[in-house]
Design a protein that fits this description.
36% helix; disordered N terminus; five-stranded mixed sheet; Nucleotidyltransferase, domain 5; alpha/beta
Length: 384
């Protein structure tokens, strides 16, 4: 088995090389804060075929409501994983598992334009400036980003001309995407894998899995808005590269709690109503309760996008919604209005072949399974 600590990130694209030996089915396992999702794919005649998929809420394992973010012990997570695989009739045990974005550090750093062997020695030293714990307590991964002149130039034409002139003789620099995960987190996930009797080949931070499944390589900047239960993650992807990431400390459970308070409902009933009606309701009080946290989230997204556009002088071309919170009824038109750009729901299953009778339901639930699909696609891509 490949050491899952050895490669935390991997380049990806729209196309998968299907000219390799047909492998057995593979799985992608997304361990979220409120649910575990699993997807099983296989490659058949050059096509990624969907075998099965499933989801299980984690709240009940901690005596909490469905949809609530919980912190479970390792044995509880193992039990939930075993349960969802059994209920979804998952037969494969090989593939990849996600690491939460909140358990990692993903940042871009500038380094001298040196050969790779020299960078390998320098990057762990430079990483100390960005990592709040000793470097020997984390697993590091990195790769060199393509260098384009416009990434480093000021916004305005006159300033750009001066910049070019004054920096013409400056030593070459390169951008490095640096990723770090605490070894304790990796050890916990390795323990889950071992106790669940899985043959997992790699761990991957959810950001890269989600982008592989819903975005791929793009020329124009694309925003990815991943609304989870406890947190909302925001990424900007350009040329297939993560150029910016941001964390918002609100998520789908905040909508449920707001609705619960406003309507004097139990959390369980509020979650049920949120999923059933969302913003498509005649209840003005319910709409206002849901809009309150949504407006805060979307305002923060707007602020981050504007900052990115000013820094790089390029507009966000579209926004892809992923995560369980993104399937809220009525969210899509609201997001288009607030973000003033093209907004679409992530459709990871579009990269797979599935039975026709599942087409509508897969489009509805697709955003929730972006990470799991992305993990399974990576395994298919790597299979020989």
């Amino acid at each position: 088995m490949q050491n899952p600590f050895s490669k935390l990130i991997e380049k990806f694209g729209d196309e998968i090389d299907f000219f390799k030996r047909e492998p057995a089915s593979v799985i992608g396992v997304d361990v979220g804060s409120s649910a575990i999702k699993v997807v099983q794919l296989r490659r058949e005649h050059g096509v990624a075929k969907l075998d099965t998929y499933g989801e299980i809420a984690l709240g009940p394992y901690a005596n909490r409501a469905i949809g609530q973010a919980v912190t479970l012990k390792t044995d509880q997570l193992v039990q939930a994983l075993v349960d969802v695989m059994r209920e979804a009739n998952v037969t494969s045990k090989t593939g990849g598992i996600s690491i939460p974005f909140t358990s990692s550090l993903v940042t871009m750093i500038r380094m001298p334009g040196l050969p790779q062997k020299q960078l390998e020695k320098m990057i762990p030293l430079e990483a100390r400036k960005y990592i709040p714990v000793p470097v020997n307590e984390v697993s590091l991964d990195w790769f060199i980003l393509p260098e384009r002149e416009e990434d480093t130039l000021p916004e305005h034409g006159e300033d750009r001309a001066v910049f070019k002139k004054t920096h013409a003789s400056a030593p070459p620099q390169t951008n490095i995407l640096l990723v770090a995960i605490h070894n304790d987190v990796l050890n916990m996930y390795q323990s889950i894998v071992t106790k669940a009797h899985l043959d997992i080949d790699f761990f991957e931070i959810e950001i890269f899995s989600s982008i592989r499944a819903t975005v791929g390589q793009t020329l124009a900047p694309v925003g990815v808005l991943d609304i989870g239960a406890a947190k909302t993650k925001l990424y900007v992807v350009e040329y297939g590269i993560v150029k910016m990431s941001h964390l918002i400390n609100q998520g789908a459970q905040d909508l449920t709690l707001s609705l619960s308070r406003a309507l004097s409902l139990s959390v369980e009933k509020a979650e049920e109503q949120k999923r059933l009606e969302g913003l498509i309701t005649d209840d003005v009080t319910a709409i206002e309760a849901l809009r309150l946290p949504l407006d805060r989230i979307l305002s923060e997204v707007n602020r981050v996008f504007l900052s990115y556009e000013r820094k790089y002088n390029r507009n966000i071309s579209r926004v892809v919604l992923t995560g369980g919170g993104s399937v809220l009824k009525g969210l899509l038109p609201l997001a288009k209005e607030k973000l003033e750009t093209d907004v679409v729901l992530g459709d990871p299953f579009a990269k797979t072949d599935a039975p026709a009778f599942l087409e509508d339901i897969l489009k509805q639930v697709g955003p929730e399974f972006s990470v799991a699909v992305g993990l399974a696609l990576r395994k298919l891509q790597a299979s020989e």
